[in-house]
Amino acid sequence: MVLTDERIDTLAEAITEGRAMWASVRDAVSILVGGNLGEIGFTLGAGLVDGQPPLSPRQLLLVNLLTDVAPAMAIALRPPPRDRYEALAREGPDASLGRPLNREIATRAFITAFGAGSAWTFARLTGTADRARTVGLLALVGTQLGQTIASGGFTRPVVITSLASSAVLAAIVQIPGLSQFFGCRPLGPLGWATAIGASTVATGVALAFPQLTTSVAARLGSIDKVLKEPVRPSLVPPPAALDEEHAPLSTLDRVKGLFSERPPYSSEV
Questions:
Q1: DSSP labels, 115-136
Q2: Residues 6 or more apart whose Cβ sits within 8 Å of residue 178
Q3: How far is residue 54 from each of residues 28, 43, 131, 137, measured CA to CA in Å?
């Protein structure tokens, strides 16, 4: 580190910005990994219930394009907040990438699957499969973007990229030709209300009930502890090695024994 001035404050700001990088990396990784895990959970759960996947391959690619590119980059490149300098002083590789990262990944995956799954279930019960597929797509993207805005601290780049992704998705759904290309259908007020309501409720649950994060992290911690434990030796003793005298005879040995035990032929009549 090279200081171009004689102010010690510059050194403190540089250290704080470096610590903020670890927090940004944790948030960006949780967005990518946690969102994808939530998509997998929603797809598997809805597929098992309905017998067919709730999203097509094009829709899954659209979800990743809208949630993992611009919003994640905005989170990773955001400047450190001025009002969190004391919290950033405690950031670092051990404090940011260990258990806190697992906790955020698990929470984001659970909230994403919950928001998309609840919207898809309601739409499937009140409409056709195509309509439920479109509502689930909107709720899946909306839930992830809502969590991205919340984790980004409502900074301008994060809000702008999230709103831009939402506008692109809305245009894709409502434009007739483009909507059919992605396997969607234009929605009415009820469909949009279902998707927006489920996304808002899921994001609100993630913000208003942080104890869900603690419980999920505790479960993950117990699983990690079990997986990291060394393999215990078996309580059943291994079979004792057989001596050569008591070793089982092969078929060839048995045949040889039969011929060797036969009495020799006598020449006497």
A1: HHHHHHHHHHHHS-HHHHHHHH
A2: 171, 172
A3: 26, 6, 10, 9
| Integer angstrom CA distances of residue 104 from 18, 39, 212 | 21, 15, 11
pLDDT in tens, 108-160: 899 999 999 999 999 999 888 899 999 999 999 999 999 888 877 778 888 99
What residues does each domain of the chain span? 8-228
Interatomic CA distance for residues 48 and 38, integer angstroms: 15
DSSP H or E stretch at residue 169:
helix 156-174
User: From residue 48, how far is each of 41, 51, 117 by CA, in Å?
Assistant: 11, 5, 12
- pTM of full prediction above 0.85: no
For 8-228, the fitting CATH number among 3.40.50.960, 1.10.10.10, 1.20.1110.10, 1.20.1250.20 is: 1.20.1110.10
Q: Which two tokens stand for residue 39?
A: 């998509």
- Listed residue (93, 78, 73, 79) closest to 32, CA to CA: 73
Other CB atoms within a 10 A radius of the CB of residue 33 amount to 17
Residue 169 C-beta-side C-alpha neighbours within 13 Å = 29
